[in-house]
Each structure stands twice: as structure tokens, then as C-alpha cells.
Amino acid sequence: MALFGPKRFVGLDIGSHAIKAVELAGAGGKYRVVHAGFAETPPGAVKEGAVVEPQALGLAIRQVIAKAGIKPGRVVSAVGGQAVIVRELKLPPMSEDELKQAARFEAERYIPYGVREVNMDFDVIGETTEDNQRKIVVLLVAARRDIVDKHVQALESGGVEPFVLDVESFAVIRALDTQGRTGGNGAATVFVDLGGETTDIVITEGDQLRLTRNINVGGDSLTKAVATRLDMEFQSAAQVKEEKGVVLLEGEPLPEDRTVSAVHDAMLPILGDLATEVRRSMDYFQTRWRESRVGRVVLSGGTARLANLDRFLSLELGVETVVGDPFAKCEVADRVLPAEQRKQVAPAMATAVGLALRGTVER
Hints:
By secondary structure, the chain is an alpha/beta fold.
């Protein structure tokens, strides 16, 4: 008997600023959002994508699950940010046992600590030919064992059972893949997931993962810039950014509210850095896959809600940029998330929705 009833799956996203939970029910190839909830993460409980205070998080998880109306049970959660290393390996064809040995050996080249200190997994994602030699393409994922253990401790302290531990950026792609492909004519998609402390930049082409990067630019970077510019505390700056944060575009009328202009001026250098890093990722992709092109950039994360950010990046990158909506392929009743609230929180819920979708393939 399924713990959540027939065909129900829960995704739990633990971020540095917020905990998000989504329960999906599958029906006829489509999905319905049964419950959804979110709450602030206890200050300092998550740093750089890693859980540092499992007990404090456990209490917050219990509150989110209860408030959302989700029955405690199995959940799909994820680690991300700088806590995870993702690499693509190209190896000669070999048996599964040989592949395990080879992947572990290759991992030592990319992991800055001992292989015995990590939890590691890999998957064969395709084949290629190099120098007339057939190679298998292997996706390697590794995370430090102590980081995984603390994440699991937080979940168990929250009264839920970790069913699968995924990678945050993979969950985002899963939730937004339809929007990434729409209008792309087979072109590559750049997913930009804007977290509180860091941002994940992932490029996919068809079903292939082409590039994944994590950069030290996030919503907090913008808030700190506003706090410095307006000479105020971080929390006050966060509220001002939320209420008056707008990216002003060249050629459009300036606002009468001077605070809006001041907030924009404070954020602009950080946004410029973000655009530069996304462009570098795109340039690297084009260098390796010269016949490919990028068709669309899809934004997610709480900072994706910043007014005009999509238009700003589209102008800077020369590529169509949209704000992702993970609920686009789900039925969402107003009693679960009223339309206006859904529009407001959707970009931040991408990881949680993607995690719940992962549950559908791990029955």
C-alpha cells in the first residue's frame, strides 16, 4: 500500500531561505497538485547548499508538512549548490562492474577530497565516438558523505522518510523541461536557477546534459548590494528589494520613486555579473558543440520574480528568456494555491515540483 495513497508523490526542497513542499497525484499521464506549502528556513540552518543544523530544520519541516496538509511519510529531497559535483565522463564500453571501478577511479580527478568521503552515483546517458573509438557517456554525481548524512538527519528529524535524494538542478530541469523545449526547434536550453546564496547554470540539448555550473551570485548578493547602497540592515534591505526591486531598462521612462532607482542602481553590477557568467557558459557550450545553438533561457528560483529580470537578460544575452512555471503542466485548484499566489511563488517551487515528479519514476 502506498504511503500517500495511490500515485501520490511528495517533493521537499530545503533552501537557504525557504522550505518548499509539493504533493502531486498522478492521473492519466497528467499531474494534480494535491497540497503545497512553504515556510522560512531557520536562519543559518543551511549554508552554501548544505544542512548545518539538522534539528532546527527538522522542526521547520514538520511545520511545513503539517501546514500544507501532507501526511508524514516518504519524500524526495535534494542536495545542491557547491555541495554537489556533477561531471560527464567518456569511457570505453565495459561491463557494469568494470564501470563502477572506472567511475570511482575517474572521480578522483574531479573531487577535491577523498573518494571515501563521498556518496557517489553514476548513470550511462549515451554514446559517442572519439578518434574512431566508441565511448559511453557517463554522468557522475558526488556529494560529501557528511553533507548527505546531515540532510538525511534533518528529514528524519522532520518526521519524513527520505525516499530518494536527488540533485536540485536535475529537479529544476524535470519541472521546466517542457518550457525549455517550447519554441526551441531542437536548440539547447539554458536553465538558470537563482538561489539565495548561489546560482546553478545548466545547459541541456534534447535529452543530453551539456554543462552544469554553480556560481557565487544569488539573491543575497542583490540584497547585500541594496543594504550597502541604502545604508540599512540586511533584513530591511530584503524587504525593500521585495517591494521596490525592478530592473530598469534603457529607453523606458524612469520611475518617480527615487528608491526604485536607487535599488536598481545597487543591483545592476550584480545583475551584470550574472549575465556575464551565463554568457560565459553559453560561449563554452558553443565552443564544444559548434553546430548547436541556444534557443531559450529559462529562469527559476525566488529571484526570478524580480521585475524585468527576464527582459534584462534577454537583451544582454541576445536569447529569448522566460520565467519558468513548474505548475504549467499541473492542475492546481484555487483551494491549494490561489491563482495570484501561484503566479507569485511558482518560480521558487520548481525544485519541489521536480522532486515530486522524480517520485513518479521511483515507485
